[in-house]
Design a protein that fits this description.
By secondary structure, the chain is of the alpha+beta class. It has a single domain (2-88), classed as Alpha-Beta Plaits (2-Layer Sandwich), CATH 3.30.70. It is 31% helix and 32% strand. It has a four-stranded antiparallel β-sheet, with helices on one face. Strand 2 (28-33) and strand 3 form a beta hairpin.
């Protein structure tokens, strides 16, 4: 399974509507509205092959009205919460 994070810059008046539309795109499993200046929305894409990711991002996501630009970050490895806790655990104080 290929996971990617699609950072979306959008027309401000379309952010809420786009979030709902993005959530309906096949291959997009979650959509978050975010603050911090990096993006307006972050969509999580989960597909089986790179070719499917190309289709999701360039044909489906980027074609939605109100999207100004996208940046796609492909995940190399996923860490569970348990794994992250183990990384930062320094043992008893």
């Amino acid at each position: 399974m290929l996971h990617a994070f699609v950072l979306v810059d959008a027309v401000p008046a379309r952010i809420a509507g786009l979030a709902e539309e993005l959530a309906e795109v096949p291959g997009i499993t979650e959509v978050f509205s975010v603050a911090g200046g990096v993006a307006d929305l972050i969509a999580i894409a989960r597909v089986r092959h790179h070719d499917e990711l190309v289709d999701v991002v360039t044909k489906r996501v980027a074609a939605l009205d109100g999207i100004e630009s996208t940046t796609t970050l492909v995940a190399f490895q996923a860490y569970s919460r348990h794994d992250l806790e183990a990384i930062w655990d320094i043992g008893p104080a």
